[in-house]
Amino acid sequence: MMILDPQATTTIPHSMRLVLLVDDSRAQRRTLAVQLLRAGYQVVEAASGDEAMRICLERRPDIVISDWMMPGQSGLEFCRRFREMQSDRYGYFILLTSRNDKKDIAQGLRAGADEFLTKPVSGAELLARLSASERILRMEESLRSANTQLSATLAQLRETQAAIDRDLREAQRLQQGLVRERHGRYGDFDLSLLMRPAGHIGGDLVGFFPINARRVGLFALDVAGHGVASALLCARLAALLSGGTDQNIALRITDLGLYDARPPTEVLRHLNTLMIEELRTESYFTMVYADLDFLTGQLRLVQAGHPHPVLQRADGRIERIGGGGLPVGVFPDAAYDEVQLALGPGDRLFISSDGLTESENARGEPLGEEGLNAILRTNATLRGDALLESICWSAAHYAGGRRGDDISAVLVERQKNGGGPWG
To answer: CA-CA distance, 97 to 99, in Å (whole number)?
Structure first.
Protein backbone atom coordinates (compact mmCIF):
# COMPACT_ATOMS: atom_id res chain seq x y z
CA MET A 1 0.00 0.00 0.00
CA MET A 2 1.28 3.46 -0.87
CA ILE A 3 1.95 5.86 1.95
CA LEU A 4 0.14 9.19 1.77
CA ASP A 5 3.26 11.25 1.31
CA PRO A 6 2.71 12.72 -2.21
CA GLN A 7 6.41 12.39 -2.94
CA ALA A 8 6.49 8.67 -2.11
CA THR A 9 5.82 5.88 -4.56
CA THR A 10 6.57 2.88 -2.29
CA THR A 11 3.84 0.33 -1.47
CA ILE A 12 3.34 -0.21 2.28
CA PRO A 13 1.32 -2.84 4.18
CA HIS A 14 -2.21 -2.01 5.30
CA SER A 15 -1.02 -2.28 8.93
CA MET A 16 -0.01 1.34 8.57
CA ARG A 17 -3.58 2.29 7.67
CA LEU A 18 -5.38 4.34 10.31
CA VAL A 19 -9.04 3.44 10.84
CA LEU A 20 -11.37 5.83 12.68
CA LEU A 21 -14.32 4.19 14.48
CA VAL A 22 -17.23 6.55 15.19
CA ASP A 23 -20.09 5.24 17.35
CA ASP A 24 -21.81 6.50 20.48
CA SER A 25 -21.79 2.91 21.78
CA ARG A 26 -18.52 2.13 23.51
CA ALA A 27 -19.25 -1.57 23.39
CA GLN A 28 -19.82 -1.47 19.62
CA ARG A 29 -16.55 0.44 19.16
CA ARG A 30 -14.63 -2.05 21.27
CA THR A 31 -15.99 -5.01 19.37
CA LEU A 32 -14.96 -3.56 15.99
CA ALA A 33 -11.65 -2.26 17.32
CA VAL A 34 -10.57 -5.71 18.49
CA GLN A 35 -11.27 -7.17 15.05
CA LEU A 36 -9.39 -4.36 13.31
CA LEU A 37 -6.38 -4.60 15.60
CA ARG A 38 -6.20 -8.34 15.03
CA ALA A 39 -6.27 -7.66 11.26
CA GLY A 40 -3.26 -5.39 11.65
CA TYR A 41 -4.86 -1.93 11.38
CA GLN A 42 -4.19 1.08 13.57
CA VAL A 43 -7.39 2.22 15.29
CA VAL A 44 -8.62 5.45 16.82
CA GLU A 45 -12.10 5.91 18.34
CA ALA A 46 -14.63 8.74 18.58
CA ALA A 47 -17.96 8.81 20.40
CA SER A 48 -19.57 11.56 18.30
CA GLY A 49 -19.41 13.29 14.93
CA ASP A 50 -17.87 16.43 16.43
CA GLU A 51 -15.12 14.45 18.16
CA ALA A 52 -14.54 12.55 14.93
CA MET A 53 -14.09 15.79 12.98
CA ARG A 54 -11.41 16.97 15.42
CA ILE A 55 -9.58 13.65 15.00
CA CYS A 56 -9.85 13.92 11.19
CA LEU A 57 -8.22 17.34 11.27
CA GLU A 58 -5.37 16.06 13.43
CA ARG A 59 -4.79 12.51 12.20
CA ARG A 60 -6.26 12.27 8.68
CA PRO A 61 -7.56 8.65 8.86
CA ASP A 62 -7.41 6.44 5.77
CA ILE A 63 -10.67 4.64 6.53
CA VAL A 64 -13.69 5.81 8.52
CA ILE A 65 -16.31 3.42 9.92
CA SER A 66 -19.19 5.44 11.32
CA ASP A 67 -22.58 4.57 12.76
CA TRP A 68 -25.49 6.22 10.93
CA MET A 69 -27.62 6.94 14.01
CA MET A 70 -25.86 9.02 16.66
CA PRO A 71 -27.05 11.78 18.99
CA GLY A 72 -26.25 15.26 17.77
CA GLN A 73 -24.50 15.02 14.42
CA SER A 74 -25.61 11.93 12.53
CA GLY A 75 -23.25 9.67 10.63
CA LEU A 76 -24.74 11.01 7.39
CA GLU A 77 -23.95 14.63 8.33
CA PHE A 78 -20.47 13.64 9.47
CA CYS A 79 -19.90 11.92 6.12
CA ARG A 80 -20.80 15.12 4.25
CA ARG A 81 -18.42 17.19 6.39
CA PHE A 82 -15.69 14.58 5.98
CA ARG A 83 -15.95 14.80 2.18
CA GLU A 84 -15.89 18.62 2.26
CA MET A 85 -12.63 18.73 4.23
CA GLN A 86 -10.75 16.41 1.84
CA SER A 87 -8.55 17.94 -0.83
CA ASP A 88 -5.20 16.24 -1.49
CA ARG A 89 -6.10 12.65 -0.56
CA TYR A 90 -9.04 10.30 -0.41
CA GLY A 91 -10.52 8.63 2.65
CA TYR A 92 -12.74 5.56 2.44
CA PHE A 93 -16.04 5.93 4.32
CA ILE A 94 -18.17 3.01 5.56
CA LEU A 95 -21.58 3.65 7.13
CA LEU A 96 -22.93 1.28 9.77
CA THR A 97 -26.70 1.02 9.68
CA SER A 98 -29.58 -1.22 10.55
CA ARG A 99 -31.41 0.20 7.53
CA ASN A 100 -31.63 -1.67 4.25
CA ASP A 101 -34.10 0.51 2.36
CA LYS A 102 -32.89 1.48 -1.12
CA LYS A 103 -33.77 5.13 -0.50
CA ASP A 104 -31.53 5.16 2.57
CA ILE A 105 -28.68 3.64 0.56
CA ALA A 106 -29.10 6.25 -2.18
CA GLN A 107 -29.10 9.00 0.46
CA GLY A 108 -25.89 7.66 1.94
CA LEU A 109 -24.19 7.46 -1.45
CA ARG A 110 -25.14 11.07 -2.19
CA ALA A 111 -23.59 12.09 1.12
CA GLY A 112 -20.31 10.50 0.03
CA ALA A 113 -20.33 7.05 1.60
CA ASP A 114 -18.38 4.34 -0.23
CA GLU A 115 -19.81 1.28 1.45
CA PHE A 116 -22.47 0.10 3.94
CA LEU A 117 -22.37 -2.50 6.69
CA THR A 118 -25.50 -3.81 8.37
CA LYS A 119 -25.47 -4.11 12.14
CA PRO A 120 -24.61 -6.35 13.80
CA VAL A 121 -21.37 -6.56 11.85
CA SER A 122 -19.73 -9.91 11.24
CA GLY A 123 -15.96 -10.11 11.30
CA ALA A 124 -15.75 -11.78 7.88
CA GLU A 125 -17.91 -9.13 6.24
CA LEU A 126 -15.94 -6.33 7.87
CA LEU A 127 -12.63 -7.68 6.56
CA ALA A 128 -14.14 -8.17 3.11
CA ARG A 129 -15.24 -4.52 3.02
CA LEU A 130 -11.81 -3.42 4.20
CA SER A 131 -10.20 -5.47 1.45
CA ALA A 132 -12.33 -3.61 -1.09
CA SER A 133 -11.32 -0.30 0.48
CA GLU A 134 -7.65 -1.26 0.08
CA ARG A 135 -8.08 -1.67 -3.68
CA ILE A 136 -9.77 1.73 -3.98
CA LEU A 137 -7.15 3.48 -1.86
CA ARG A 138 -4.31 1.84 -3.77
CA MET A 139 -5.71 3.06 -7.08
CA GLU A 140 -6.29 6.56 -5.70
CA GLU A 141 -2.78 6.81 -4.26
CA SER A 142 -1.23 5.44 -7.45
CA LEU A 143 -3.12 8.06 -9.45
CA ARG A 144 -2.13 10.80 -7.01
CA SER A 145 1.52 9.75 -7.19
CA ALA A 146 1.37 9.76 -11.00
CA ASN A 147 -0.25 13.21 -10.94
CA THR A 148 2.46 14.47 -8.61
CA GLN A 149 5.16 13.19 -10.96
CA LEU A 150 3.28 14.66 -13.94
CA SER A 151 3.04 18.04 -12.21
CA ALA A 152 6.77 17.99 -11.50
CA THR A 153 7.50 17.06 -15.11
CA LEU A 154 5.23 19.82 -16.40
CA ALA A 155 6.97 22.32 -14.12
CA GLN A 156 10.33 21.26 -15.55
CA LEU A 157 8.94 21.53 -19.08
CA ARG A 158 7.66 25.04 -18.34
CA GLU A 159 11.11 26.04 -17.08
CA THR A 160 12.71 24.52 -20.18
CA GLN A 161 10.20 26.26 -22.45
CA ALA A 162 10.87 29.57 -20.72
CA ALA A 163 14.61 29.13 -21.33
CA ILE A 164 13.95 28.23 -24.97
CA ASP A 165 11.73 31.29 -25.38
CA ARG A 166 14.49 33.51 -23.96
CA ASP A 167 16.98 32.00 -26.38
CA LEU A 168 14.58 32.39 -29.30
CA ARG A 169 13.95 36.04 -28.46
CA GLU A 170 17.69 36.63 -28.46
CA ALA A 171 17.98 34.67 -31.71
CA GLN A 172 15.25 36.86 -33.19
CA ARG A 173 17.16 39.98 -32.22
CA LEU A 174 20.34 38.57 -33.76
CA GLN A 175 18.54 37.49 -36.92
CA GLN A 176 16.98 40.90 -37.37
CA GLY A 177 20.52 42.24 -37.04
CA LEU A 178 21.49 40.28 -40.17
CA VAL A 179 19.70 43.00 -42.12
CA ARG A 180 22.11 45.78 -41.23
CA GLU A 181 20.50 48.44 -43.39
CA ARG A 182 16.75 48.65 -44.03
CA HIS A 183 17.03 51.59 -46.40
CA GLY A 184 19.48 52.72 -49.01
CA ARG A 185 19.72 55.46 -51.64
CA TYR A 186 21.80 54.97 -54.76
CA GLY A 187 21.55 57.79 -57.29
CA ASP A 188 17.84 58.39 -57.80
CA PHE A 189 16.96 54.89 -56.55
CA ASP A 190 15.55 54.15 -53.10
CA LEU A 191 15.82 50.63 -51.64
CA SER A 192 13.57 49.50 -48.75
CA LEU A 193 13.59 46.15 -46.96
CA LEU A 194 10.96 44.29 -44.93
CA MET A 195 11.54 41.16 -42.83
CA ARG A 196 8.74 39.94 -40.57
CA PRO A 197 9.01 36.36 -39.22
CA ALA A 198 5.85 34.44 -38.35
CA GLY A 199 7.43 33.17 -35.11
CA HIS A 200 10.45 34.14 -33.05
CA ILE A 201 12.80 33.33 -35.92
CA GLY A 202 12.24 32.66 -39.58
CA GLY A 203 13.77 31.45 -42.80
CA ASP A 204 13.50 34.64 -44.88
CA LEU A 205 16.37 36.99 -45.66
CA VAL A 206 16.61 40.20 -47.68
CA GLY A 207 19.45 42.64 -48.25
CA PHE A 208 21.55 44.75 -50.58
CA PHE A 209 25.23 45.65 -50.91
CA PRO A 210 27.23 48.09 -53.03
CA ILE A 211 29.22 46.59 -55.89
CA ASN A 212 31.08 49.65 -57.16
CA ALA A 213 30.49 53.34 -57.84
CA ARG A 214 27.47 52.71 -60.06
CA ARG A 215 26.06 49.30 -59.18
CA VAL A 216 24.32 47.66 -56.24
CA GLY A 217 23.41 44.01 -55.64
CA LEU A 218 20.14 43.08 -53.97
CA PHE A 219 18.60 39.77 -52.95
CA ALA A 220 15.59 38.11 -51.36
CA LEU A 221 15.59 34.47 -50.29
CA ASP A 222 13.34 32.05 -48.44
CA VAL A 223 14.72 28.91 -46.80
CA ALA A 224 12.32 25.96 -46.82
CA GLY A 225 10.83 25.15 -43.44
CA HIS A 226 10.76 27.08 -40.19
CA GLY A 227 12.57 27.29 -36.91
CA VAL A 228 16.17 27.01 -35.83
CA ALA A 229 17.51 25.03 -38.81
CA SER A 230 16.13 27.55 -41.30
CA ALA A 231 17.42 30.46 -39.25
CA LEU A 232 20.93 28.97 -39.07
CA LEU A 233 21.04 28.50 -42.83
CA CYS A 234 19.84 32.10 -43.22
CA ALA A 235 22.72 33.27 -41.05
CA ARG A 236 25.18 31.28 -43.18
CA LEU A 237 23.77 32.80 -46.38
CA ALA A 238 23.83 36.28 -44.88
CA ALA A 239 27.57 35.86 -44.31
CA LEU A 240 28.01 34.80 -47.94
CA LEU A 241 26.18 37.85 -49.25
CA SER A 242 27.74 40.59 -47.14
CA GLY A 243 31.11 42.10 -46.43
CA GLY A 244 33.97 42.72 -48.83
CA THR A 245 35.14 40.71 -51.80
CA ASP A 246 36.93 38.17 -49.61
CA GLN A 247 33.59 37.25 -48.00
CA ASN A 248 30.79 38.08 -50.41
CA ILE A 249 30.20 35.24 -52.84
CA ALA A 250 28.77 37.67 -55.41
CA LEU A 251 31.81 39.95 -55.58
CA ARG A 252 35.21 39.68 -57.21
CA ILE A 253 38.18 41.90 -58.03
CA THR A 254 39.05 42.43 -61.69
CA ASP A 255 42.50 42.20 -63.20
CA LEU A 256 42.65 45.99 -62.89
CA GLY A 257 42.06 45.76 -59.12
CA LEU A 258 38.53 47.15 -59.33
CA TYR A 259 35.46 45.86 -57.53
CA ASP A 260 33.01 44.01 -59.72
CA ALA A 261 30.27 41.40 -59.32
CA ARG A 262 29.84 38.02 -60.84
CA PRO A 263 26.92 37.73 -63.26
CA PRO A 264 23.65 36.86 -61.45
CA THR A 265 23.48 33.43 -63.09
CA GLU A 266 26.99 32.63 -61.91
CA VAL A 267 26.09 33.68 -58.35
CA LEU A 268 23.12 31.30 -58.31
CA ARG A 269 25.14 28.43 -59.76
CA HIS A 270 27.84 28.99 -57.17
CA LEU A 271 25.28 28.97 -54.32
CA ASN A 272 23.67 25.83 -55.72
CA THR A 273 27.03 24.03 -55.82
CA LEU A 274 27.86 25.20 -52.31
CA MET A 275 24.55 23.89 -50.95
CA ILE A 276 24.89 20.46 -52.55
CA GLU A 277 28.62 19.77 -52.32
CA GLU A 278 29.79 21.64 -49.24
CA LEU A 279 26.93 22.39 -46.86
CA ARG A 280 25.26 19.06 -47.67
CA THR A 281 22.05 20.08 -45.98
CA GLU A 282 18.65 18.55 -46.60
CA SER A 283 17.18 22.03 -46.89
CA TYR A 284 16.95 24.33 -49.90
CA PHE A 285 15.90 27.88 -50.59
CA THR A 286 14.28 30.05 -53.22
CA MET A 287 15.86 33.33 -54.24
CA VAL A 288 15.82 36.41 -56.42
CA TYR A 289 19.20 38.05 -57.01
CA ALA A 290 19.57 41.25 -58.98
CA ASP A 291 22.37 43.55 -60.13
CA LEU A 292 21.21 47.16 -60.55
CA ASP A 293 23.06 49.88 -62.43
CA PHE A 294 21.64 52.89 -60.61
CA LEU A 295 23.05 55.37 -63.13
CA THR A 296 21.24 53.90 -66.12
CA GLY A 297 18.38 52.01 -64.46
CA GLN A 298 19.40 48.73 -66.11
CA LEU A 299 18.77 45.68 -63.95
CA ARG A 300 19.87 42.06 -64.40
CA LEU A 301 17.87 39.54 -62.40
CA VAL A 302 17.73 35.80 -61.75
CA GLN A 303 14.70 34.06 -60.27
CA ALA A 304 15.31 30.70 -58.55
CA GLY A 305 11.92 29.33 -57.51
CA HIS A 306 11.01 32.55 -55.68
CA PRO A 307 7.66 34.27 -56.34
CA HIS A 308 7.67 36.43 -59.46
CA PRO A 309 8.92 39.99 -58.87
CA VAL A 310 6.33 42.62 -59.76
CA LEU A 311 7.28 45.64 -61.88
CA GLN A 312 4.93 48.59 -61.52
CA ARG A 313 5.48 51.25 -64.13
CA ALA A 314 5.04 54.95 -63.49
CA ASP A 315 1.72 54.92 -65.37
CA GLY A 316 0.35 52.14 -63.10
CA ARG A 317 0.85 49.19 -65.46
CA ILE A 318 1.97 46.00 -63.71
CA GLU A 319 4.25 43.38 -65.22
CA ARG A 320 5.23 39.96 -63.87
CA ILE A 321 8.98 39.38 -64.12
CA GLY A 322 10.88 36.11 -64.51
CA GLY A 323 10.15 32.57 -65.58
CA GLY A 324 10.13 30.79 -62.20
CA GLY A 325 13.38 28.84 -62.14
CA LEU A 326 14.54 26.03 -59.87
CA PRO A 327 15.19 26.34 -56.12
CA VAL A 328 18.77 26.44 -54.89
CA GLY A 329 20.16 23.26 -53.37
CA VAL A 330 17.92 20.66 -55.07
CA PHE A 331 19.38 19.75 -58.47
CA PRO A 332 23.18 19.58 -59.01
CA ASP A 333 22.99 20.74 -62.62
CA ALA A 334 20.29 23.37 -62.21
CA ALA A 335 20.41 26.11 -64.85
CA TYR A 336 19.30 29.68 -64.17
CA ASP A 337 18.12 32.24 -66.70
CA GLU A 338 18.86 35.93 -66.53
CA VAL A 339 16.20 38.59 -67.12
CA GLN A 340 17.15 42.14 -68.08
CA LEU A 341 14.91 45.13 -67.70
CA ALA A 342 15.08 48.90 -67.42
CA LEU A 343 13.58 50.91 -64.59
CA GLY A 344 12.53 54.35 -65.71
CA PRO A 345 11.65 57.38 -63.56
CA GLY A 346 8.63 56.56 -61.39
CA ASP A 347 8.95 52.77 -61.87
CA ARG A 348 9.30 50.39 -58.97
CA LEU A 349 10.14 46.72 -58.52
CA PHE A 350 8.60 44.70 -55.68
CA ILE A 351 10.10 41.34 -54.64
CA SER A 352 8.37 39.37 -51.88
CA SER A 353 8.35 35.90 -50.34
CA ASP A 354 5.42 33.53 -50.75
CA GLY A 355 4.29 34.26 -47.20
CA LEU A 356 2.55 37.30 -48.69
CA THR A 357 0.76 35.83 -51.71
CA GLU A 358 -0.11 32.63 -49.82
CA SER A 359 -1.99 34.51 -47.07
CA GLU A 360 -5.41 32.86 -46.92
CA ASN A 361 -8.84 34.24 -46.07
CA ALA A 362 -11.45 32.43 -43.97
CA ARG A 363 -12.48 30.33 -46.98
CA GLY A 364 -8.93 29.11 -47.51
CA GLU A 365 -8.42 31.20 -50.66
CA PRO A 366 -4.87 32.61 -51.08
CA LEU A 367 -4.26 36.26 -51.82
CA GLY A 368 -2.32 35.29 -54.93
CA GLU A 369 -0.64 37.47 -57.53
CA GLU A 370 -3.87 39.19 -58.54
CA GLY A 371 -4.54 40.16 -54.93
CA LEU A 372 -1.01 41.55 -54.59
CA ASN A 373 -1.41 43.50 -57.84
CA ALA A 374 -4.65 44.99 -56.56
CA ILE A 375 -2.91 46.10 -53.35
CA LEU A 376 -0.12 47.73 -55.36
CA ARG A 377 -2.63 49.59 -57.53
CA THR A 378 -4.58 50.75 -54.48
CA ASN A 379 -1.40 52.06 -52.85
CA ALA A 380 0.13 53.59 -55.97
CA THR A 381 0.76 56.94 -54.25
CA LEU A 382 2.66 55.42 -51.30
CA ARG A 383 6.35 54.67 -51.25
CA GLY A 384 9.07 53.23 -49.03
CA ASP A 385 8.12 52.01 -45.57
CA ALA A 386 4.60 53.40 -45.91
CA LEU A 387 3.98 51.17 -48.93
CA LEU A 388 5.51 48.08 -47.28
CA GLU A 389 3.45 48.55 -44.11
CA SER A 390 0.28 49.11 -46.13
CA ILE A 391 0.91 45.91 -48.11
CA CYS A 392 1.41 43.94 -44.88
CA TRP A 393 -1.72 45.45 -43.34
CA SER A 394 -3.80 44.64 -46.40
CA ALA A 395 -2.57 41.03 -46.45
CA ALA A 396 -3.26 40.65 -42.71
CA HIS A 397 -6.75 42.11 -43.16
CA TYR A 398 -7.41 39.69 -46.01
CA ALA A 399 -6.28 36.77 -43.80
CA GLY A 400 -8.28 37.93 -40.79
CA GLY A 401 -5.13 38.52 -38.77
CA ARG A 402 -3.82 34.98 -39.28
CA ARG A 403 -0.27 34.52 -40.52
CA GLY A 404 1.40 31.14 -40.90
CA ASP A 405 4.57 32.07 -42.78
CA ASP A 406 7.34 34.64 -42.77
CA ILE A 407 6.92 37.75 -44.90
CA SER A 408 9.88 39.54 -46.45
CA ALA A 409 10.22 41.99 -49.30
CA VAL A 410 12.62 44.19 -51.27
CA LEU A 411 11.26 47.39 -52.77
CA VAL A 412 13.27 49.17 -55.50
CA GLU A 413 11.90 52.61 -56.45
CA ARG A 414 13.23 55.10 -58.98
CA GLN A 415 12.28 58.64 -58.22
CA LYS A 416 10.55 60.77 -60.78
CA ASN A 417 12.07 63.82 -62.42
CA GLY A 418 15.66 63.15 -61.42
CA GLY A 419 15.03 62.84 -57.70
CA GLY A 420 11.88 64.92 -57.24
CA PRO A 421 8.94 63.77 -55.11
CA TRP A 422 7.10 60.54 -55.91
CA GLY A 423 3.82 60.74 -57.88
So the answer is: 5
What is the pTM (predicted TM-score) of this model? 0.63
Under a CB-based contact definition with an 8 Å cutoff, are residues 373 and 310 in contact? yes
Task: Please state the φ and ψ torsions of residue 305, each to the nearest 5 degrees.
Answer: 75, -5
Q: Rounded distance, CA 329 to CA 8, Å?
A: 55
Answer whether residue 12 shows pLDDT above 50: no
Neighbours of 411 (CB within 10 A): 23
- Cα separation of 312 and 297, whole Å? 14
Q: Residue 203: name the closest of 181, 171, 180 by CA.
A: 171
What is the tens place of the pLDDT at every residue in 130-176?
888 888 888 888 888 888 888 888 888 888 777 766 766 665 666 55
| Distances, alpha carbon 75 to alpha carbons 81, 95, 103, 120, 213, in Å | 10, 7, 16, 16, 97
Residue 120 preceded by cis peptide, ω within 30? yes
Closest C-alpha among 361, 407, 409, 418 to residue 387: 409
What's the mean pLDDT in 255-284?
Answer: 87
33: buried, middle or exposed (CB in 10 Å: 19+, 13-18, 0-12)?
A: middle
- Separation of alpha carbons 330 and 229, rounded Å: 17
